[in-house]
Design a protein that fits this description.
By secondary structure, the chain is of the alpha/beta class. The protein is 29% helix and 26% strand. It has two domains: 139 residues, HUPs (Rossmann fold); 136 residues, Elongation Factor Tu (Ef-tu), domain 3. The longest helix is centred in the C-terminal third of the chain and has 17 residues.
Length: 287
């Protein structure tokens, strides 16, 4: 029997697969003789990061889908609770060397691991020498690669700036049922919920592009609580797909965000809401 193929593994949370994450991931894919792999905790199992409450950008399912599309052959994504009590050396020996058979481990310069995040890249290199894997550290200094900065920009509704930086924020979920009011006022919409713990971008209306199967459509999306027609609901994304007709309930839709057009507000009547939606759609068509 031949020797079992080694892996080149990117390690990190990767909750947005943004340009900084891509640098680490691309490096792991650059070792042609090794299987491209990823170690990443289940994003939705992490409550705190660096002592602060953690809001993830993408759901774990969507993150894993993106990683698979990028060509990673091995993806290990355990819940945080499964390994959080493991010390750094045990993680290197049992997970990186043992379970993932790493020949190379790739991480960002601020990567921390082990119980109480007690270990950094220095310890990782030492464990690599001991257990037989090389460590590649990618320098991610600068705001362009800061996950916290990108989260802040999403909270500020700066999705068009993020797109220009190479991060195309996308909401990918199954379409859920709503009150179907949109149909009665001439603007049918699809509803997409945010998961518990998921970052909700700035509320308001955005220009978007919606992908259904292999087709793309111009669309307009409201993130918020629909104050004109609803009471006490959780924030969700409600999208009107321009020029589309058909039932999408239960199907997966990918909505990619462009410009934040205006803030969400409560209208005095449904007719006033209809008028504003029509104006929003005309604004998008002119863009």
């Amino acid at each position: 029997m031949g020797e079992i193929r080694k892996s080149a593994a990117a390690v990190g949370i990767f909750d947005g697969i943004h340009p900084g994450h891509r640098l680490v991931l691309d490096e792991a894919k650059s070792f042609g003789e090794m299987a491209p792999a990823v170690f990443t905790f289940n994003t939705e199992s992490i409550s705190f990061k660096h002592g602060r409450s953690f809001e993830f950008i993408y759901t774990n399912d969507y993150k894993l889908e993106l990683l698979s599309k990028l060509g990673f052959e091995q993806i290990y994504s355990p819940d945080f609770e499964e390994l959080c009590g493991m010390d750094g050396e045990s993680f290197a020996r049992e997970i990186l060397c043992g379970r993932m058979n790493c020949g190379v481990v790739v991480c960002g310069e601020n990567f921390r691991f082990g119980h109480g995040v007690s270990c950094g890249v220095g310890e990782l290199r030492a464990f690599g020498e001991k257990y037989g894997f090389e460590v590649r550290v990618i320098k991610l200094s600068g705001d362009a690669f800061s996950s916290e900065r990108l989260r802040g920009m999403l909270r500020e509704g700066r999705t068009d700036e993020l797109r220009a930086m190479g991060f195309n924020y996308t909401l990918s979920t199954k379409v859920v049922g709503g009150n179907r009011l949109g149909r009665t006022i001439g603007f049918p919409t699809i509803n997409q919920p945010f998961a518990d713990g998921q970052l909700v971008p700035k509320t308001g209306v955005y220009s978007t592009v919606t992908r259904i199967d292999e087709d793309e459509y111009a669309s307009i999306t409201n993130i918020g609580v629909k104050p004109t027609v609803e009471k006490n609901i959780r924030p969700l994304a409600e999208t009107h797909i321009i020029g589309f007709s058909g039932d999408l309930y239960g199907k997966r839709a990918e909505v990619s965000f462009g410009e934040h057009i205006r803030d969400e507000r409560k209208f005095s009547s449904v007719d006033e809401l209809k008028k504003q939606i029509a104006e929003d759609i005309e604004y998008i068509k002119k863009d």
